[in-house]
Specification:
With 213 residues, the protein is an alpha+beta fold. It is built from four helices and nine strands.
Length: 213
């Protein structure tokens, strides 16, 4: 829907976006890979924010640099429970992804996203949602102008009964059978996400801005 709006309404290129997801995990060490900082870098991003990485890559394409800050505030695991990833894309756009295991406000897995285009802004699940709604639906709204000579601020909305991160089992089944799917994610998009995750791990360890190889 966001890409359709971008194309149909001539919103221009993406300038920047902010994405966030959180929930409450009162976790204890259990010897699993969740406890290993090397296998689970910036844990909230790696476990929850991974879907948001894929979202922003679908909108922004190849990345060039990342930085990452993480802390442990609440859980008993030795890995982080609070983290933010910033990504610079080759286009010049900048995205940030915040994820946390420390927040209990009734909006678990909210998957909020704000996307700024040249001539409009899209909001996904940004206002407070009805109890438990974040698990089953997505609310989108768009504010835009048609150009510098347009005095009107236009507004439209859309709603879906699914959310970012849902497992598309029917699509997987059809892909295994060899069917071509509409809006299929390209191999390049998947590889870009993996490269960002690898760079995020290095950035968390070093505290430096890291190139995406």
């Amino acid at each position: 829907q966001i890409i359709n709006w971008q194309n149909e309404l001539n919103l221009g290129q993406v300038i920047g976006c902010r994405a966030e997801v959180w929930r409450n995990f009162d976790e204890k060490p259990d010897g699993s890979w969740y406890n290993d900082p090397e296998r689970c870098p910036a844990a909230p991003i790696f476990r929850l924010g991974i879907y948001l990485i894929n979202d922003v890559v679908c909108l922004l394409g190849p990345a060039s640099k990342v930085s990452c800050l993480s802390t442990r505030m609440y859980t008993a695991r030795p890995t982080a429970d609070n983290a933010q990833l910033t990504i610079q894309f080759r286009s010049g756009a900048i995205a940030s992804i915040y994820a946390s295991f420390c927040i209990m406000d009734g909006q678990s897995f909210k998957n909020a996203l704000t996307v700024n285009f040249e001539r409009g802004t899209v909001y996904r699940n940004v206002p407070p949602l009805a109890y438990d709604a974040a698990k089953s639906q997505t609310d989108l709204s768009l504010i835009y102008r048609l150009g510098p000579d347009d005095p009107t601020r236009h507004y439209c909305t859309a709603k879906t009964d699914s959310r970012s991160g849902d497992y598309q089992w029917e699509a997987l089944y059809r892909a295994i059978k060899g069917e071509a799917l509409p809006d299929e994610v390209t191999p390049e998009t998947i590889v870009t996400g993996v490269r960002i995750v690898n760079a995020m791990a290095r950035a968390e360890q070093t505290g430096c801005v890291v190139d995406v190889d």
